[in-house]
Amino acid sequence: MLHYLLRRAVSGLIALFLFLTLMFFVSESVAPTDFTTQFSLLMTEEQRAALARDLGIDRPLWQRYFDWFGSLVRGDLGFSYYGFPVAEHLWGLIPYTLLVFLIGTMIAFQIGRWMGKVAAWRGPGLVNTLSSISAIMLYTAFPPFLAFLVSRVMERRLDLKRPALGGRAVGNVFFGELWRSPRWEPETVMSWVLLTVVGYSVLIMVLNELLARRVRRRMPTLVQAAALIALVSGTWYATGLWPYALEVLKVASIPIVTFVLLSFGETMLIMRTSMSDTLREDFITTAEAKGLPSRAIRDRHAARTALLPVFSRLVVSLPYLLTGLVILEDTLKWPGLSASLFNALYQQDIPVVMGGLVLVGVLSAITRLLLDVMYAYLDPRIRYDSGKLRRAG
């Protein structure tokens, strides 16, 4: 398996290189004008030519590519055409996007997985029909309109406030007495929130699997949720992060809920279809013939195998979900990476555009590698032999 993963890692790096190379030439070549054109009313032709020389955009395209790629190999994303470091700029925006993206994806996945599993197990009926209709309606909803409805409902019913409308400067969405002389910066709070939630979630999953291997039993879902809440809350209390974390989640709740409503439907529909196909497999018939409880057959055998197509689709769609956040971030004035990438593309700030694409490409490569590991873990029929993937039996 290690040999196979190494081969996949190398092929992923090659694919990442080709993707970034293509995006560089497309970004530089498709634009009808260069960066300095937007200043034509403020600068003379000589001033624009001098600015182009200073930025290096007057050089041949191939030379700009090699300069950019050389800096990337050294771990330097360069400088924006407006003068600020690209890496520093993106690093300040990443916590905002990941807070919505990761927490929203985790919640949407769990909801979609559970609804799809239940709908497929019960078969045709009212539950199946209603869940499918709701999933399709929300999945195909117009994001700005859904964001507007969610914000109005949550503002009136739960007394939650949308992010401040005064621009997209980092930290601008947080205001009030708590942030006037904060012990924690908003970006630091978001990073710790993500670290604790994701870290403890992974820890609980590992302990659950170890428990299943040792005593053939798993922790109930409610027990896992209670353990996660207790561990996260205890850590926040112990570090003094509690009031800041609650304030961050309160402000971020509207984009998170909107993202969940928009994305859980795809997981639910794929899980339902995959689960329905899995229930017709021979190993399900064998499990039923052995007299295993229905819940054990549903959760330990059918649902476990049915997750494979769901994971595959989730991994493939991660870059699209990440870049698709631009609509929500723009509608809700959330200062995230996606909205910044869109603005940079509009302003022809190519270094920022390429920096954002580097992050998206690296995320895609890593998640595709993790998918191979998940395949081997979830489906015992899959084996890795001599660097190739094959099905046992």
What key attributes describe this structure?
single chain; 13 helices; globular
Residue share in helix: over 70%
Spans of 5+ residues with little confidence (pLDDT < 50)? Answer: 164-171
Structural class by secondary-structure content: mainly alpha
Share in β-strands: under 5%
Any idea what the shape is? globular
Mean of residue pLDDT values: 80
Q: Report the span from N to C terminus.
A: 18 Å
What is the chains' assembly state?
Answer: single chain
Q: How many strands, what sense, and barrel or not for the largest sheet? A: 2 strands, antiparallel
What does this structure look like?
- The protein has a domain at 90-348.
- Strands 1-2 form a two-stranded antiparallel sheet.
- The protein has helices spanning 2-30, 45-55, 61-73, 86-122, 126-139, 143-158, 186-215, 221-239, 242-278, 282-289, 294-332, 337-346, 350-378, and strands at 382-385, 388-391.
- The relative contact order is 0.15.
- The chain has 13 helices and two strands.
- Helix content is 74%, strand content 2%.
- Helix 6 crosses helix 9.
- By secondary structure, the protein is mainly α.
Brief summary:
This protein is mostly helical. The chain has helices at 2-30, 45-55, 61-73, 86-122, 126-139, 143-158, 186-215, 221-239, 242-278, 282-289, 294-332, 337-346, 350-378, and strands spanning 382-385, 388-391. A hairpin with a 2-residue loop joins strand 1 (382-385) and strand 2.
